[in-house]
Design brief:
Alpha-Beta Plaits, globular, single chain, alpha+beta, 7 helices, 4-stranded antiparallel beta sheet, 4 strands
């Protein structure tokens, strides 16, 4: 299912959940429960868990890993000028764009509001930038063209979830200030 078509699976009754487990299979139901209802991307909690796993893999095998934080610029203007329904459609469309432009091994998540996180396992900084550039290009073609600020951090020996997030967040905020 693509963003915007995603149902809020956490609201289903127990019997409906059993029916869906039988119809869709347990893996698909779990995937949908862990997804953001609006965008279809992973939720914050699942993304943090996934980042923790990828950091352990990077440490163990001495492999590259990147983390991107993205914040939609002037998103509040869409909500204010066109209403929250249009804002929701814009977020869903952005989730679709992200899903279509990333590689199969990348892990996208809605971190909250208009903030998104992308985990790039086995990826060097330069290659992660290429993926983000594709997302920027496609996001500018949306009904309401979206621009966003992003920060990217590469795994460093001894990194934790918090240290990678802090560096990516710092870079994102720095770029956002440069745009003002």
């Amino acid at each position: 299912m693509k963003g915007g078509e995603f149902m809020c699976w956490r609201k289903f009754s127990f019997l409906r959940l059993i029916y869906l487990m039988f119809r869709l299979g347990p893996k698909e139901v779990i995937r949908r429960i862990e997804a953001d209802c609006l965008t279809g991307l992973a939720r914050k909690e699942k993304a943090v868990e996934e980042l923790r796993k990828e950091i352990k893999r990077a440490q163990r095998y001495d492999r590259p890993l990147c983390l991107a934080f993205m914040d939609l610029d002037n998103f509040g203007r869409i909500n204010k000028e066109y209403g929250h329904s249009e804002g929701d459609r814009t977020l869903a469309e952005f989730g679709r764009v992200v899903s279509e432009e990333i590689r199969g091994t990348d892990y996208p998540a809605r971190f909250g509001g208009d903030e998104f996180l992308l985990i790039f396992p086995e990826t060097k900084y330069e290659d992660a930038i290429k993926v983000i550039d594709r997302i920027i290009f496609e996001a500018r073609k949306m009904k309401f063209p979206i621009d966003f600020s992003f920060g990217l951090s590469s795994y460093r020996k001894g990194d934790t979830v918090e240290s990678m997030k802090e560096r990516a967040d710092f870079e994102m905020r720095k770029k956002k200030k440069e745009k003002l």
